[in-house]
Design goal:
Elements: E1 4-5, H1 7-15, H2 37-49, E2 54-57, H3 62-77, E3 83-85, H4 98-101, E4 108-112, H5 119-128, E5 131-135, E6 149-151, H6 167-181, H7 192-201, H8 208-223, H9 227-236, H10 243-260, H11 264-271, H12 275-306, E7 314-319, H13 326-337, E8 341-347, E9 350-356, H14 363-369, E10 376-379, E11 383-389, H15 393-404, E12 418-422, H16 429-437, E13 449-463, E14 469-475, E15 482-487, E16 499-511, E17 514-524
Parallel strand pairs: 1-12, 2-3, 2-4, 4-5, 5-6, 7-8, 12-13, 15-17
Antiparallel strand pairs: 8-9, 9-11, 10-11, 13-14, 13-16, 14-15, 16-17
Helix pairs in contact: 1-16, 2-6, 3-6, 3-7, 3-11, 7-8, 7-10, 9-12, 10-12, 11-12, 12-13
């Protein structure tokens, strides 16, 4: 039974989420605690002193692009030439692959946000006399690449005290040691504006040092002279930027480049040296994002038709599904069917795709248990990527569902973050102030959602140029005052009984210099 919350009760619940006070930037653990980080920093410093060719290999998601941008910016400030390569999802596949190495000439290769599973790349670099430094944050397998150094907090013998950091954080921490090795006068705080974007977009838990870095990074975006940050704050046009603004408005645009075309477009945006260049790149990202939304909606519709609703783990596959949107489509299926989902795109007999999970189910462990069917896979508990021959899909689907039978049914229950019910009179600016005190919200510090039960629907208006969003005017039983609910991507029709039950979050709406309390529908029951 959900409790009725007072503002004081809500404050106490949110306060209880944090065992300790927020860390200061000075409390961030020493990067030297990362296994092989000092060794890597010394090798990078040596390469710079000896004028050796250094090539960076990134990744095509937000974390990979930001990691690459931080590296490029740092090397520019030395200054030292760094060649940055981001694989193309469609031509190169993921990470530091043999096809990427074919076109690289280098003395030293550094990976960011990838490489922990690059066994083949390790062998090729060894044969060619290239030192390979891997920096990653993904879960390692039993067999590690034969590299000069591997910096990954998830290595079992790594003593870094906080493991849940993204690829950009690993790269940033390593560069702090490079700065020390070369006695450089570079302000590591100058990267926080972009670093926080990677932490949010890669769904890192917003606790411990992540919380500190995101808090400081969001402030930095508002003051940064980086052309990309100037464009971001102009685009958002808000006095205060939140983690949700980054998660829902900025990250999808950055991601759209790697999903649909080439992540170098997003990298050029972040490393642009004037606002004109940054704006041009951002315009391309905007149009790609529009195309991504259309493609995703179409694919989701088709994928829903393919779903076996009796399966414990959804596995759907089809020719010509756009490889760049299968991850988002998997997330949509998880939301709709409340079970893990794997969505595969088939081309020339090869299936490549993405997996998303729910509740406490580790999709990585489920996939690993059935790796005999796969040509490649990687990821973590809640999300993974994989590849296999199309002829093996049916057997893989049966096998992974068989594995899922051994998982407790309770683990499949979505995490219910609804905190309770609020009285109409408590939904005000004071409530907003309480909620703002506990920002930034995200993974491990979810934005509070509340429940409305059997409220009377007074009026419904459809909004947006394609009339795909709903504005629902309601009245709760406890009060004659009306409230307005906004349901994005939902065409809501008047229910037969004239009542609505839903969960919602509370946010600040700032429009035309007017501030109001806005209720955003999470789920209609």
């Amino acid at each position: 039974m959900l409790q009725t919350l007072t503002k004081q009760k809500l404050y106490n619940i949110l306060l209880s989420r944090f065992e300790t006070q927020d860390k200061k930037l000075s409390h961030i653990p020493n990067p030297a605690l990362l296994k092989d980080a000092t060794k890597s920093a010394k090798r990078i410093a040596q390469a710079i002193k000896n004028n050796q060719k250094i090539v960076l290999v990134g990744d095509y998601d937000v974390d990979g692009v930001v990691s690459s941008a931080i590296m490029v910016d740092f090397f520019r400030q030395i200054p030292y030439p760094l060649e940055a390569v981001i694989p193309n999802r469609f031509n190169d596949g993921y990470g530091v692959s043999p096809s990427i190495l074919d076109r690289i000439e280098a003395d030293l290769i550094i990976t960011v946000d990838n490489g922990i599973s690059a066994i083949e790349a390790g062998k090729i670099c060894k044969q060619r006399g290239i030192d390979l430094i891997i920096t990653d944050h993904h879960t390692p397998s039993e067999i590690l690449p034969d590299a000069y150094a591997i910096v990954d907090p998830k290595l079992s013998d790594c003593n870094y005290p906080f493991k849940e950091i993204c690829g950009a954080e690993v790269a940033w921490l390593l560069l702090g040691l490079v700065k020390k090795e070369l006695s450089l006068n570079i302000n590591m705080g100058s990267f926080l504006d972009v670093l926080c974007i990677a932490i949010i977009a890669d769904i890192m838990p917003l606790i411990d040092i992540n919380r500190t870095l995101v808090k400081e990074g969001l402030k930095a975006i508002s003051n940064s002279t980086r052309p990309a940050s100037i464009i971001i704050r102009d685009f958002l046009n808000k006095p205060r930027i939140s983690s949700e603004d980054i998660a829902f408005a900025i990250a999808p645009r950055i991601n759209s480049a790697g999903r649909l075309e080439d992540a170098s477009i997003a990298l050029e945006f972040f490393i642009a040296q004037d606002t004109h260049s940054a704006y041009k790149q951002f315009e391309i990202l905007n149009s790609l994002n529009e195309h991504r939304k259309e493609t995703e909606a179409e694919t989701t519709k088709e994928a829903i038709d393919e779903v076996d609703e009796d399966a414990r783990v959804i596995v759907v596959a089809k020719e010509d599904w756009h490889e760049g949107v299968v991850g988002i489509v998997a997330s949509r299926l998880v939301d709709k069917f409340e079970k893990p989902a794997i969505v595969l795109s088939i081309e020339d007999g090869i299936a490549k795709g993405s997996a998303r999970s729910i509740g406490e189910v580790s999709i990585y462990n489920l996939i690993k248990e059935n790796e005999t069917y796969l040509s490649k896979f990687g990821g973590h508990k809640m999300a993974a990527g994989l590849g296999l021959n199309a002829c093996d899909i049916d057997e893989f689907r049966d096998a992974i569902n068989q594995s899922a039978l051994s998982i407790d049914k309770k683990d499949f229950i979505p995490k219910n973050d609804v905190l309770g019910m609020l009285k109409t009179d408590d939904i005000d600016f004071e409530l907003l102030d309480i909620l703002e005190q506990f920002e930034p919200y995200g993974e491990a510090n979810t934005k509070p959602t509340f429940y409305i039960k059997d409220a009377e629907v007074i009026n419904i208006k459809l909004m947006g140029k394609d009339k795909s969003h709903s504005r629902i005017e309601i009245k709760q039983k406890d009060n004659d005052k009306t409230l307005e609910l906004i349901a994005f991507r939902t065409v809501y029709e008047m229910p037969e009984n004239g009542l609505i039950s839903c969960s919602y979050s509370v946010s600040k709406n700032e429009f035309n210099s007017r501030i109001s309390v806005q209720l955003l529908v999470d789920k209609i029951y």
